[in-house]
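Study this chain:
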Amino acid sequence: MCGIVGYLGEGNVYDILIKGLHRLEYRGYDSAGVALVGNDGKINIFKTKGKVSNLEAFCADKCLDSKVGIAHTRWATHGEPSDTNAHPHYSEDGNIAIVHNGTIENYKLLKDALLQHGCKFHSDTDTEVLAQLIEYIRVTNKCSLLSAVRQALKQVVGAYAIAVVEKDNPDTLIAARQSSPLVIGMGDGEFFLASDATPFVEYTKECVYLKDGEIAEIRRNEPLKITNLDNVEAEIDVTTLQMSISQLEKGGYPHFMLKEIFEQPDTLRDCIRGRVVERGARININGVNDHKEKFLNAKRIIIVACGTSWHAGLLGKYLLQDMCRIPVEVEYASEFRYSNPVINEDDVVIAISQSGETADTLAAIQIAKNAGAFVFGISNVVGSSIPRETYSGCYIHVGPEIGVASTKAFTGQVMVLTLLSLAIAQLRQTMTQEQIADVGKAVLKIPTYVKRVLELNAKIERMSLIFTYARNFLYLGRGYSYPVALEGALKLKEISYIHAEGYPAAEMKHGPIALIDREMPSVIIAPKDHLYEKIVSNVQQVKARGGNILAIVTEGDTEISKLADHVLEVPEMPECLTPIITSVPLQLLSYYIAINKGKDVDMPRNLAKSVTVE
């Protein structure tokens, strides 16, 4: 959520900033703005409520000459979405401008102190407080901007990623981070700054990820300098980006979400590559191999995650308990961090986050580390905070996911959890070699089978017209299919704004059955597995009450196909692998219902791709 872009160089500053803001739109926002240190010796700030396109229209007749600038997309935390509350923010004398992601928890205390010193405020934001504080320190102490930023941040409690420019110093850009991502792109005589690397990947592949507590001094024609809050110089670790510009474009698809759904055969193949070896007979997970004792001696596994990643974590519980015979708990990271959790040194904590920057999950990691647990991270973004903060882990390798509603990242997370479970079972010998090989061989077929499921696209598009105007949905599943039901319901809620609930099918009769009628569709995930006869009974209960049933079944199914009003068939797979197969048609169903309703599927209202605040 929120996006920062900055540029210092000889290029067209405004064009680079605006293009960068468009690249960050997927993060979720409600206003946008730019600050340009003009050749006329002024900081010119232009900002508007609404989309980046609104900002472009507002700037169409403005003077935009500059050699350094910062820009921002805001997701409201303090103060409603408005032109005034949009970033960037000035200091009162107009000498500095700032953009900020995160939350300043003690902003009210700081604001009260500044008011006593005569400062005046124009917005409701915590960010303006930081701008005023930096300038107050700079003037009072007669110090440099860098020193003022450092002193101000020592007084701040909370999370931040900031970029600051100064009217009288157009050759300098200051940046800092604490619990909110910030990365510096290093070009030929130019520097880029952004919340992630997508805004500058077409200009340079070389970048530096700032760490918590670090401040970057970016100066024209000088090497990058990074220090901490105590002014101790930090080592600069340059990373080469692996993403390409083509991954950030739609490639002929009308929306990123549809593109990412159809990328899944390839992303799953990338996720599997090098990890399932010897034709499926052996699983190779370096994060397990390098820490064998931790997994051999683990008495319990705790999975922490949020949103879609939490649903993947629920599937991880089924997988780990089935294959490894270890007790597993799955916690919302936002609840875990405040629940006074009981954590032991022989626990393994698995933290899952697509972005690798989820604030609640990062806080949960710190709690687990402080308690002495071994923490294993699962993320998609190389160089993000979670891979750096955990002792070991796995990347899901699905490439940039731009659509806010996660699709390929979900199946990638489930695949990594499947391979992790197999690797631990292999290590602890809780499965026979033959059992591991059977599942391993089936894993290698998953990309091909997902491709077959995607052939249902046209059928699902037609079918979606039947359900477009439903006001409520019930998603039901048992065993491995229960988390799939939760994820299917979440996808529909996120992008179509239709109320949907996921439920264990056996629990339906303990309440939700009262809601069933012809007007509320029931989506039932019912592959051929050891609970199949049980789910048949649940389908009959829905049908007896006049429910409209869409069933996801295994190819060749006869019983449920006779009962359901609509049927989608998927290839037969080992039970532990069915969630990857059955989740894909639910993604397509949500997509087409939302499209039929005219919704913006890539940027649904109020949502953000990377949730970096509480």
Summary: The longest strand covers residues 169-178. The first helix runs from residue 13 to 23. The chain has a mean pLDDT of 92. DSSP finds 20 helices and 26 strands in the chain.
